[in-house]
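Sync notes, pocket subgroup
Present: LS, DG
LS reminded everyone that the earlier model was apo-only. Rerun requested with adenosine-5'-diphosphate included. Inputs:
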Amino acid sequence: MEKTRKIKKVLIANRGEIAVRVIKSLKEMGILSVAVYSDADKNAKYVQMADEAYHIGASPSNESYLKIEKIIKVAKDSNSDAIHPGYGFLSENAHFSERLNKEGIIFIGPSAKSINMMGDKITARKTVEAYGVPTVPGTTEAIKDVNVAIEVAKTVGFPIMLKASAGGGGKGMRIVHNENEFESALNMTQREALSSFGDDTVYIEKYLEEPHHIEFQILADKYGNVIHLYERECSIQRRHQKVIEESPSPFIDDEMRVKMGEIAKNAALSCNYEGAGTIEFLVDKHKNFYFLEMNTRLQVEHPITEMVVGIDLVKEQIKIAMGEKLSLKQNEITQTGHAIECRIYAEDAENNFAPSPGKIEYLEEPKGKGIRNDTGVDSGSDVPIFYDPMISKLITYDKDRDSAIKKMITALKNYKIVGIKTNIPLFFEILNHDVFLTGNYDTHFWELYSYKFFKEDKEELELLKEIAAAVFMNNRKKDNTLIVAKQSNWKLNGRMGN
Ligand code: ADP
């Protein structure tokens, strides 16, 4: 396909908040938007916002949003020049990118080749290592023989992590504390990997202690120009999935920021990347940083970057897809102020995060300077059971971290959602937490502190605190790692990361 081509109409192969988000930028650019929807989404906000909308199938995503040929047919029938995949669904599907290329439809994202290189964790590790990017210590080979693998694990040093090479979404990884646990953990991880990803390839990574998850946003055009748009701190996680993100990271300094940014650009160059992408790093307590993986799409948490650098990432994606050269140079990108994002889910935070789909009877969004709510729902909207339960992303922006946190707490208080339960109560617990407020928290925040959340009874709380401390010490002695979460079924309503 030729390098430059005008885009006049874009089909959004997605739903919910991200479809709304993409349509907003398209409107500002004077580009027409085409929505596709399943049975469950026929009255959705994004469907109403789009210039055209087409039904593509039944509610389950494999009968609608994952139907490649159906989506291509709608793109052709509607004369769409390009498809924006959002995140999830087909966004990291190399075959989809390839099929669109064959059909002469622009995929707003990277080539199938880049997706393949980064989609498989082992291949990604090999690819970036060749460009001098440090990876988490471990292997770049699939485990074939358990005895050989145990020897490798000993050399890497326990605790280690077994990871599915095709894994994603926090699934297909398991911590192994010692040699004795290795074989059964390997069998379980391989089985899980096969059933979830259709590929039982598993490899070894050192299990980093007290790590921070810090990722860099990059933009790359078709001509080999790459810039980074600084970092996002994503260490507040539950079950390896992000809950709150902020930018800048309170953990790294400017010198490290520059260093990591340059390495992130190399990672993008290593796979000949084009478009918007994210390089994820784990940073240990000594501030050593290691490549974790690359996400070859727009990230859920992209708005916090947009707020601090003042750049619309969706517009940049579209300009790159049209074959424009990057208009900004690295030294023109500056981080100003501080942004935080809370992922709002239709889940009952006070009842073990049980799903809470249904009709939103009334919704009132928080509003004000520096408050942004990216959402796919309104008063009267249905939250279907079929898809990811995230209903909105609330973002606050202010001159510094303290002000952004304060603004978030007020915004959450002013967020009224009636009809379904949400995880909003969780954010008050985290945003008021001493450790969060210091800014020096790592990915173990949840395991260490969530047992306290939603506890009214002070006596019970004290008791739980003592037990958690004892468990923590015990586990430390035994294998030098933290597995407080293992105790979660006991008396804690299963709330701690199980
Ligand atoms: P996925 O592709 O499923 O999102 P990642 O490899 O990106 O998985 O890891 C998700 C999270 O799991 C990380 O943010 C981190 O909290 C934890 N994690 C992954 N690998 C390691 C590791 N080697 N050591 C410690 N924690 C890890």
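DG: The radius of gyration is 22 Å.
LS: The longest strand covers residues 226-238.
Action: DG to write up.
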